[in-house]
Structures
1.
Amino acid sequence: MFKKLHLKLTLNITIVLVVLVAIYSFIVYGFIYRGNKNPAQLILREAVSHVSDLNEIPDYPPKPKRFPKNNHKTVNIFNLKFNKDLHYVLRNTDLTITATTLDEVFDDDSLKKYALKVLKTKGSLTITTEINEESVRMITAYINKNGIEGIAQVFYNRDAEIFFMTRLMTTFITIGLLSIIVLVIISWYLAKKALEPIKKSWQQQKDFVADASHELRTPLTVIQTNLEVLESCENETIADNKQWLDNAYAETRVMSKLIDDLLLLAKIDAKQVALEQKEFNISKIAVEVSAQMYPLFKKKSIVFTTSIVDSINFNGDETRIKQLIIVLLENALKYTQEEGKVSLTLEKKDNKVIILVEDNGIGIAHEDKERIFDRFYRADKARFREEGGTGLGLSIASWITSLYDGAIRVESEIGKGSKFHVELKIYRK
């Protein structure tokens, strides 16, 4: 699926980039073309303005001796005045040629029709046409000054201009073709980078569904097995089968917690978790949670100690902060052996609340440290299953920490225990 999507996205990006390059090329080409045409027209008009006598060619610029065939050696499209040979055809009002720079025979009929048109309007006309099969840019203008009335036609050979623009177009096409190859490679890379978060999200979703199905299947299997045992003991009382009922009940509690965690994570992903922002005494919350957890630690003969600074106020969601502390303590309870030690520390440092949960349990391997906050990840699956865990607690704890621009990290060593360090920023109302 992603391979086809990658190809499709590459094609779309390539098309967009090619279109942008083509638009840019046309704009540049048009700019250069207009940069050639507009100054040329100004020069032609200036040349007409130098005509003061219909019988005399003005010295602007110096007259060539013959109709030019441009050898393309000198082209400066932004300085036509010094690199274009201008040619004059001067006429009186009956359109008879009175003076010209062209010594060779040329087709006057093609020029005369423009002169006639301008004579009627007594204006000017700038066009691109052909004279003796040569492309020229020409201005035909009505002259009426110093008692002189007639028509002046001034033009230049466009061979060099055409040569330059053709070479420019060829260069653009060549660069364009090479650019397509480069753009395909760039598009492939950009498409790959764009798909990475989608692929990651898709894989996480697949893993989440697979892990959730597995986690739900296990307690269901246990419940089903215990109920099948009960079915086979038709003549026994409930008291005789209390062990099987207790097993089934314990698994329903595991399922209930798992489903609650799954629903919370689903809401987190959909950004639909409602958070209550209020100021509360986080020290009091830590004391309450410690009191709730104390019997569980005592049942496992674990020494549980606390160091809680009084009256630390925190602005946030009281329920989620309580859940964060519970997750950290439950995690320590699961991975600490009997007669071990667990401590909870709550203090304030600058504008941060610091929560430390330390134990001398089994510890976490170095390769597992980065993954323990992933959903359903367990460093010790067998022990976790015995303790009734879901593998979602630390993932939820990480999310709660992120709500307050905080950080959660772990220091651990196999056989020596773990220390979870949480920092939460304090925001004032």
2.
Amino acid sequence: MQLAEDLMIDLAWEVKESAAHLASASDRISQTEDLVEASLRRHAENLSNAVRSDPLGNASRWLNEDQMGTFLPR
């Protein structure tokens, strides 16, 4: 049950960030290149500083281990 909750939290974060990306793109239509670049740099910094859930850890590792039958989520 914890995995499902963690996945929902991660999905909510993804949806929120996707909305922020869409808002940023629509705002940039009327901005100059310098303003757009500064805004994108601020957004990238915010993303790199974000604390977010990672319920599966490294997804590739999780999938590979699951295929071998050595890892089952709780």
3.
Amino acid sequence: MKATTEGSWLFSYIPACLTARLALITATRAAGRPDAAGCKAMLNLPDTFDRSASDAAIDKGGSRPIPCVRTGGVMSRSPIPLMIDDLSQFATHLRSHWPGAEVTQTQALGLIAQAAGYRNHQHLKASQPPALPALDKQALNRIKAALAVFDGSARMIRWPLKTSVQRLCLAWFWTRLPDRVDLTEQDVNAVLKANEVFGDHVLLRRALIEHKMAKRTVDGATYRRIGRSPDAEERAVIKALSERALAAVP
């Protein structure tokens, strides 16, 4: 599966019910579409929610509440991270199992968890990584410096000078690459270009290799994301940039 057309990731520390939408946004950028609506229409996902209250919250600078499918009301947020390795498979499963009748919030959460490869919502909750530990002042300064080189849409606007900050920034691009998928150089370039605006995707591609977040064959024909567990600082940057990307959605 080509990352430039279908999208097949995420590693996003954001509420579970929002992760699929961020995946659509990322896939849309890589595919050159103007917004998430086109990608959503392509996947033919159900859209029966009343988003008036949700959009109002976004306009006031808040976070988007999770809609209740059964009543159309607004439910409290469920801050459970969710990893989606294959967006197309996730959407296909969700579409094929989505009932025609209205469902409860509990049933909807179960369907989302199953589409992501978990047995049920409880299995998803039990599979979560530990909470972020307390970070010292130096770590917080590095995180702040990393976030400063991204715009409000979570796209990099300049390359930081410090190596320690570069690593944190690259963790974001690492999450954009699909896991366990062979990629061409063009595939990698498309993902990087969709998430930066300073015009040097080649630097980013090389830096991912140097920081051992990705690898390539000797002839440079095939790239792969390297499996790893982001540290606490990287996770904080990933979480903050994920929230920026979601907030930037029209």
4.
Amino acid sequence: MINSTASLAPAAEAHEQSGSPVLELALQPLMDVKVSVPKVFAYEALLRIGTPCGLELETFISACERNMSIANVDMWVATEACKILALFPDMKISINASQLSISAPEYISHVVNTAAKNKCATRLLVEVTETAHSADGAIAPGLKKLYEARIGVMIDDVFDSFAKRHLIALPFITGCKISRRTMVRLMAEEEMTGKNGHIFGEVKSLVDRCKGTGKAVVMEGIETEGELDMAKKLGIRLCQGYYFGYPKPRPGSRGSEWNLDMKQ
């Protein structure tokens, strides 16, 4: 994973529990399954806590969102992702950003400027997460600026928590992601009823609306062939999950076993 001296100190509550760990990134493939042999379409950069410290990632993120330091963390992730994209011109990467970060002008400026500096804006996607709430009027200007800079904007985990599903209709939103949690609900519904039910209908309606307006849909958390079949039944082309591959250290880092031909 990416070695960094980025301290968790900005999240004081979390840092008190953790000593002095560092932040790292791992990359997980996002696959195009509408071809005879599924192929990598992009990678998601997933935040990890580097040194063993007994601190859960969700606890850290929650602490950062509570004390409003999350934008610092999300800026670090954007910087590291852009560095990777600069090294691999055929690669695409999506990064997560809290709604609180999207509301911060300094975060938006940092992402736009860093992507421009590394000449990777068209290969960078920003996923707006659902773990904290910010008003539509606070996040919409930032999302529009990202789009105007040719950076893709996705709504993450659209059926969960504080997800901004209703913003998908906006012209500067390029797509959405459906979580592992929703996939579990879909599979449970099918097992219980033996047919497509209310949950399936709700998800299929969203997928159809997105396809009709040229927006991408990604199904996350696919772990079995049955779950992949469910995604295909819903008409979803882009899929992600342990079925295709676990998160890996970045190319070229210690412990990495990447095939550096990103076209494969």
